[in-house]
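Take a protein:
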Amino acid sequence: MSNKENGSILITALIFMLLLSFMLMAYLDMSSTGIKQMLYAEQAKQAFYIADGGLNYTTHIVDRILSEKSIPPAGAYPANIVTFNDDGTGNDNDGDGKSLVEELLGFAVPNDDVINSPDITITVKNGNKAFINLGKVGSVDFTGTTSGEFASGYEGIGAGAASGGVYYYIQIESLGKTELNAKSNVLGIYRKVLGISGGK
């Protein structure tokens, strides 16, 4: 074999190796892109579950605040999990001088920002958090009735519906945020019935 043939085989081998290298880099790039997309999708799903869980958990807190007309006392919820950022005793999340209780009862217009000034922060494991904003969006008085369907709790009112009461409609905005900064927002309206026992 001559030197000329050896040289052309070497050049062909180098070109072949270069092509294989480009194909391998493209494959690795596609693999890493796929892994990133899977991670982003998983984080987005996790952020949604955090937001949804925060919304559901908050309905119990709202129920208690409206029933007692005050922020739950220290120890009612674990301090490392639930933080009241607008408790009317030194914590004023939005600088309006009004507490969360006043906002929920309709004595103040909520002007909170769910990330920068949430009413409540719920800390989940691994640094994941749900940021909660609350505000009264309306109320409706209702009078009692003797309708068996209504008084039986068909509408979710419960015992004592014959005496009447007030529907309070509370908007709950819950933003879930993961440790990798993925975010998801869930908005709901919670109806609390005041003036009767057991109404929600």
